[in-house]
Design brief:
alpha+beta, 3 helices
């Protein structure tokens, strides 16, 4: 049955600082298929694309909602990438229960602000905080810090955006 479900449209964000590192956040809660495993709580910001929303608009909205960052410039983007959610039990009313996984377009952005602008804890647009802390990390190391079902996508993103890394 999972194969019959659609993928959720989603954007991913590789936010690069001046040193070529990317921003990652540590997830602090388990939300259905967005499972957190011990030691694998880190990820780059990502989020759903609203109905009739352009992915370039979605990426800036999601970046702001999850990190408070508004000062970033466009560097590039990937083609659409997908990953399947692992099996999970949740009521059919769960916001992700109707999806097989996520179909993502990843964007590389250059951070143009200062680190004190980054605030993952304050809810914005009525969305709960997803990260309890953040840090800058080398892009080529991030795939080893995420849950296994996302690793192939993260490796593809790292290859595609390597030219922006330090």
């Amino acid at each position: 049955m999972a194969d019959e479900k659609p993928y959720r449209p989603n954007v991913g964000i590789a936010l690069f600082n001046a040193s070529g590192q990317v921003l990652i956040g540590r997830r602090f809660r388990d939300d259905g298929p967005e499972i957190i495993l011990p030691g694998l709580e880190w990820q780059m910001p990502q989020g759903g694309i609203d109905a009739d929303e352009n992915p370039r608009d979605a990426v800036m909205r999601e970046l702001w909602e999850e990190t408070s960052v508004a000062n970033a410039t466009y560097l590039g983007e990937t083609d659409w990438l997908t990953y399947d959610f692992p099996p999970f039990t949740a009521p059919s009313s769960h916001r992700l229960a109707k999806f097989r996984g996520q179909r993502q377009k990843w964007f590389a952005l250059r951070f143009a602000g200062s680190d004190d602008e980054i605030d993952p804890l304050t809810p914005r647009n009525g969305q709960p905080a997803e990260f309890d802390t953040w840090r800058w990390e080398r892009l080529d190391r991030v795939a080893d810090l995420v849950v296994p079902f996302r690793r192939d996508v993260y490796r593809t993103v790292a290859q595609h955006f390597a030219k922006f890394a330090g």
